[in-house]
Amino acid sequence: MDYFKVDETGKTSDGYYTLPKRSMGSMYVKSLILLVILAIMTVGSHYYLAIEGITGTWAILLYSIYALVAVYLLIWPAVYFARYRYRISKDRIDIRRGVFVIRHTVVPTERVHQLEVTLGPINNLFRLADVTITTAGGIASIQYLDREVASEIADSLNEYITDIIRSRE
Amino acid sequence: MTEGENLGGPSISPDGITPGEEFRQHPIKVVEEVLTAAVVAFFIVFTLFLSISDEDTGISDYAGPISVVLFLAIVASALWISYWRWKKTIIIFKETEVRVFRDTVFKREVRIAYTKIASTNVNRGVINRITGTSKLMININSSVNAMMPELKLTFDAYLTDKIRRDLAMKMHNTESVAVDSETPSILNVTAKDIIIHSFLSQPTASSIFGIAMFLIAILEMFVSPDTSVMGPIALLMFLLSYVIPVVSMMAHYYNYKIYKSGDTIYISHGLIRTYNKSFKTTRINAVRLRSPLIPRLFGRYMIDAEVVGLVTGDGGDSNAAPLLCPMKDKATIDNMLKILVPDFVSVDETILQPKEAAVPIFARIAAYSAIVATVMYLIQESINSAYVESGLDPGNLFIWFAGTTVLIITGLIIYGIQSLKVISFRKGEEVFTFVTGVVDRKKVTVKYDKVQTATVSEGPLSKPLGLARGDVSLLSSIGSQSIRSGFFRSGDMEGISEEVLARINDYRYDYRKYL
């Protein structure tokens, strides 16, 4: 079964949603910022090694590592977008994501302690938001969502949790 | 308000605490806080003294008096603030909750329902022992503040025990075992056992590193006793990496006793600082059977448990996971598991990693080997160039590096082969078990009901083979912890989260069981 194939409604056959296309824009901006920072660090390291008289193989290794990281940073947004799926139901939050390794995370709604909608400066440019789900044993997040969708998810999950708490009182 | 006759402590009825009665902490709390402030003030003032005693400052003649006045001013302020806080802090044990109210400039009221308390622990430091007091630590079941107790209250030792007993009645509806109880421990642990435990429970890497440093130090003492710098450094490394952890563990677990009353486990130990811990077995999130390589060769194992809220936040208790059994033989370990945590004993079939798991395991080993070989080659080349430039003969440098590289890669290959024989998974009805660690083995048994999130990871090599790794996160002694499996069938790993959800949906998971 292809977990990532979507139909005309934008959902997979088992009801998973995709991210909005502009999420890729946010990912590319983050990648480019990181590429520039790494380029400065690589050139700086090369300059420092040259002063110390270390050139040749070490310099080749340094630039090879940078080239590998650069290729990864340039391809990951498209792959990450293509392989990001999430699904919210009454009993669980399901997230599938990853570039090389695909991770399938399941958070039972019953375990959710806290919900948070966060808007970073880059995500804000693209009208995106992340939903951070805190459980007693750690944090899970659904990233690069439409702002409105993020609010809806937070609201609906909050409702589920409130129902659970009320039923226990 | 109830205030005691001696040392200002409160008095209580012999039967227990009267609900609503107001308590104040023992005044030694003020002394402890002032002493801590004095130590900090000493270092600040001493640094200041050194800087102003320089003649260039123009006030060097007054460096001494200024420092003394400043030190006294800080200590006096600390004394006043501590006394005021102590005087204005009231503790009330109500019918259903404990309240701590502080009426200072920064007003504070803490309310903790007895049902939310995960554990109550008693801790006695040197000052407490001298003054006959104890610290009562109250922890709730939260990962947010897992490294510090929610309440840390100092009372007379007898009063602390009474409060703790009273709290145990309210929390667990069972009689608490008193500190210094004459009740015999359910496991006979001698000082010799604790010494063996302290030596054997160290991670294998630390033991090997420590012994290697010790041997280097001895060798250097004989080869070049006067000129060697390496000898003292190796000796220092040996002390830091091996001797100090072993000795501190001996002091920590000295006089180890363990009791079980109803479903509550009580543990007491400690030489200089004594620890008294208690927790309900329903608060245990996971049970870990551990055995580093060296004790395993002698057939020795130990058990500890993941319980939230046992860290005292008072120094010295970094071993937050309570030790249920120090290094003992397998029969004793199995018996202790049955007595203490029968819910975590599983007899279900153990599944080893499938043969196909060799593909991702050895692919990873190949990648690590390539990295090791590249780095070793580059280091060897750099050293070789330096020798040649200095006109020195590099000698057998290449052979040394090549030999080390072959040794590391051989170790990695053995690790891969062994992991196929050792890493396993067991799926039970109430619990599941991950066995990890080829060298330092860990068998972690987790209750489905305690899993907070579950993740299944499929890599580019494991996915086509239908294999995946499982990751579960749960509450632990230090907040939260993630436990990772080896490579197993994706369905088995996905089955963990499915079972967690099924138990919630069909009401097999009952939150009231874990309150």
Structure classification of chain B = alpha+beta
**Oligomeric state:** heterodimer
β-sheet strand percentage of chain B:
25-35%
Radius of gyration of chain B: 28 Å
Question: Which sequence of strands runs across the widest sheet of chain A?
Answer: 1-2-3
Summarize the biggest pleated sheet of chain A: 3 strands, antiparallel
Assign an overall shape of chain B: globular
* Total of helices of chain B: 12
Number of strands of chain A: 6
Would you kindly provide a written description of the structure presented here, covering whatever features stand out?
The complex is a heterodimer of chains A (169) and B (515). Chain A is of the alpha+beta class. Chain A has a single domain, classed as Roll (PH-domain like). Helices cover 49% and strands 24% of the residues of chain A. Chain A has 4 helices and 6 strands. Chain A has a 3-stranded antiparallel β-sheet, with no helix packed on it. In chain A, a hairpin with a 3-residue loop joins strand 1 (85-88) and strand 2. In chain A, helix 1 (23-51) packs antiparallel against helix 2. The radius of gyration of chain A is 20 Å and the shape is elongated. Chain A starts with 22 loop residues before the first helix and ends with a helix. The relative contact order of chain A is 0.13. With 515 residues, chain B is of the alpha+beta class. Chain B has 4 domains: 22-172, Roll (PH-domain like); 190-255; 356-419; 423-514, PH-domain like (Roll), CATH 2.30.29. In chain B, 42% of the residues lie in helices and 25% in strands. Chain B is built from 12 helices and 20 strands. In chain B, the strands form 4 sheets. A 7-stranded antiparallel β-sheet of chain B has the order 13-12-11-17-16-15-14. A 6-stranded antiparallel β-sheet of chain B has the order 7-6-5-10-9-8. In chain B, strands 1-2-3-4 form a 4-stranded antiparallel β-sheet. In chain B, strand 9 and strand 10 (274-280) form a beta hairpin. In chain B, helix 5 (191-200) crosses helix 7. The longest helix of chain B has 32 residues, at 358-389. Chain B is globular, with a radius of gyration of 28 Å. Mean pLDDT of chain B is 85; it is low at 1-14. Chains A and B meet through helix 2 and strand 3 of A and helix 10, strand 18, strand 19, strand 20 and helix 12 of B. Strand 3 (102-108) of chain A pairs antiparallel with strand 18 (451-458) of chain B, so a sheet runs across the interface.
